Amino acid sequence: MTQINNNEIKKVLQEEIDEDGDFMKDLLSFMLQQLLEYERDKQIGVDKYERDNNVRKGSRNGYKYRSLNTRLGKMRLKKPQIREFPFKTMIFNNYQRSEKALLAAIQQMVIDGVSTEKVKKITEKLSDGVSFSKSTVSRFIRELDPMVKRWRSERLDEYYAYLISDAVYFHIRENGRVLKRPLLLSAGINAAGYRKVLGLDMAYQEDDSSWKEHVRGLKERGIKGVGLTTSDANKGLVKVLEEEFPGTPHQRCMVHFERDILAKVPAKERKKLSRYLKQIFNAADKEMAMAIARIVSDKYRDTYPKVSKMLSEDLEGVLTFYDYPEKHRRKIRTTNLIEWLNKMIKKRSRVIGVFPNAESCIRYVSCLLMEIDEDWHTGRRYMRMDYLEEDKDFLDEEIMEEIKMVKEGVRTNEELVAQ
After folding, report:
1. What global pTM score does this model have?
2. Residues 6 or more apart whose Cβ sits within 8 Å of residue 275
């Protein structure tokens, strides 16, 4: 197949430097063009000038020029054509999907009366060479909305070993005011160990009815069952998860719990308490974690009774992860999977600041999550699901009990006999 020649890259760089050109933009254009050539050769089965008809699936049929808007400006690329079947490329579809949603949100700002000066500053941050006409953005919206609707309503006919839910907040302009509204998000890990973005819904607040509508929407789309739910301590969400998935264990997010309990002590005490909490969360098993927690609770009973109360009354729900395979625990004891999605969304949407309406926010976030979801689906497995069986097969229960006793400071039978 077509190979990218290092000498050609050096030549492009040198020409641009000599001519004082925009070599980053031209280098990206060169690399994208090489990728298009590679995709064409892969699809027809042979390189240029090869005559092996046993593997040839098609023949070259020239090019059509296509424009591509990027953060470095507008690029003009030659899209290869294949005579026998349509040429397919990821560049003009997946690459620009979230960019189109971003452009649509920016254009909506103008329509809804945001100052042109502010919009100009935002577009300058995106790219120097991209124009934003109303007709272009209207076409983007017509293309995106049906696709977003299909993705948000696709069937979820699977069992999910782990379900993680949390909310991400955005600033939305509504009726002349800017409101901070939660976007309810859920992600799951299926029985094969792959992650999936399950759903998102915009709400006015995180209450029982909002979360119930979100979770029931997931169930209506066919979720066959859940092995464990993970969330923060939001009472509305926890209540809904217990009602909608009766009998399913719930994991309270360890990070949220730690943040809440550290807020009960002054700053000078937080480092010490944080170290004690790490001893609890990194114990060998739940019994040892509870034993350490009782010691810490007794220490703070007189000085900081709220800490003692939280460790006595609320900790058990934070330690549910100990009932699951050791290799899974770090990934299921927090809502970090949603927090990572939150980080990715905020990083890309920061340029907008305030979304002109809820629809533009949902459109943009959905397009970005669709790209992430595709990467999850085709990428590496997030976790192996056979660790529990391996533990049963290869760990001797008597030896593990002795190890536990040693860790807890209990002498072994041999030591007692020797005495």
Report:
1. 0.70
2. none
